[in-house]
Amino acid sequence: MDILEVLASHVLTGQQIALGAEAAIYSVRYLGVPLVVKYRYPRRYMNPVLAEELINRRTRLEAKIMEKAASNGVCVPRLLVAAISKGMLVMEKLEGTRLDNVLSSIYPSLEKAYNLSSLFVKIGKSLALLHKANIVHGDFTVSNVIVDSSDRNFPCIIDFGLSRFSGDVEDRAMDLRVFLKSIESSFPRYLGFINKAVLEGYSIIASSFYKEVVARLKDMELRGRYVEERRKN
Amino acid sequence: MENADIQNLYNLPQRRGSEPITVLGIESTAHTLGVGVVSYPPFKVLVDARFKYNPIKGGLHPRLVTEFMVSSVDKALKEVFSEISDPSAIDGIAVALGPGIGPQLRVGITLARALSLSLRKPLIPVNHAVAHIEIGRLECKLQDPLIVYISGGNTQLIVYKEGKYRVVGETLDIALGNLLDTFARETGISPPYIVNGKHAIDICAEKGSFIKGFPYTVKGQDISYSGLLTASLSHLKNSPGSLYDVCYTLREIAFTELLEATERALSSTGKESLLMVGGVAANDYLHNKYKALSEERGIKYCRVSKKYAGDNGVMIAWTGLLGLAHGVTIPVEAAVARQRWRITEVDIPWIY
Questions:
Q1: What is the mean pLDDT of residues B87-97?
Q2: Which of A26, A187, B78, B87 could form a disulfide bond with A14, CB atoms 3.0-4.6 angstroms apart?
Q3: CATH topology of domain A97-232
Q4: Which residues of chain A have a CB within 8 Å of the CB of B171?
Q5: CATH fold of the domain at B146-270
Q6: pLDDT reading at B92 higher than 50
């Protein structure tokens, strides 16, 4: 039996661990090995032609990007099988805790959060490594960082579902903005120091494009609708 | 609406005695002059006067809308005071200071100042976006939903956190209603924009089918519509017979982008209920998509009634009442138009 068919049957019986925005994530075991299967299926609210277009395009691109990210030194889950037309990606299961859960468990203590400063520097570095490889993540939120607690608080990046190949300053700044907004909406008290730590890490790797990305980030904050500060400029 | 339901939803200070609070609210941010009067407890809508400007051609020309609003003030006040025989029963005058279009805002603000001075009642500043949310929260009885706020000028995904509403996703360029209206106007199928409760695009899309290859832009929890608008107009220019298909495709992609951003926001915030408010919330095709999404994810979903989806004075009055209960008032001279008053700047003392 084809490994894909076996996995497909596991997906049906496996444990759904998350229902993301455009895929369901299943936790399965194959030959005793814990795996994660990401399965994109047509949404009920989507036109079927549009759904097929999006599923194929995104599954193919995601596979490509995960391999490139890994080869550029970013911690990402290893990709084992990519079944594009089935909308399915099979990858290793990372041991660790989602960053939002890590933060929820200590919020609102600032003291405990400061102990995580080096983690946020590393997150900034990881993002800059992606950007240096011409990858933009596209959904770089607190729920898409896994903290490997077993070892030295190392961040791994997951869910490349909206990622693209791009070296555009706008796209790069958007990754930072999405991350900081996800901190702001769930952990507003931490925004200030996380902002600082992430940018510090980012600047170490992103030396050549750091300045323009940060300038664009500031620009973006003023660009949203109904921002009074913009009036004064 | 039971008192107990409202007490569960809102943190309202206990008042001495059981006298209800009555607030008059004025809306004039875009196309509608609305004057509403509500009282609580128990919750009652005493007046809901509305005068909506419908352009014969083009869009909302501020001068023409303003003239229309000014000429409607008299009728609005007659409606109010034929219902409220004793003006001293009104405890406060609420007005939408923004966000909105300056000339129109100033009509409502001038009226509010005049009423506040002549009735000697405090003036309550209301943010238009907050008002859309509060009337929806009240009707749907949702404590802590992810809010989808969609109208002609706004497309935002919003949650409440620590004393303020926070924007977790939004359009990076034009609003959903703006996209639909502009396409309809450019292609000549509007005005009228709404026919028998349906948008001109919905009617046009009924005979259409999906065209592949249009731009689809979701960036995290944010979305973009301007590329879709340009692509739709240029596709139509190159194949003039394709109007129905373009209507269908434009609507399909615009709505799906929003739904996908909503799903992302649901995942990242962990909210278990969804509330749709604003003028575009009256769209049944979009409503059905949200129903499908909520069933698939097993979450609660509710939209504001069609009656209160569009701009109205009742929502301003209700939000003003919540503000007044917490002492949110301003002196008359501080009531100025705030065209870009972002929802995240507003203190929300009435949520637990």
A1: 97
A2: A26
A3: Transferase(Phosphotransferase); domain 1 (1.10.510)
A4: 225
A5: Nucleotidyltransferase; domain 5 (3.30.420)
A6: yes
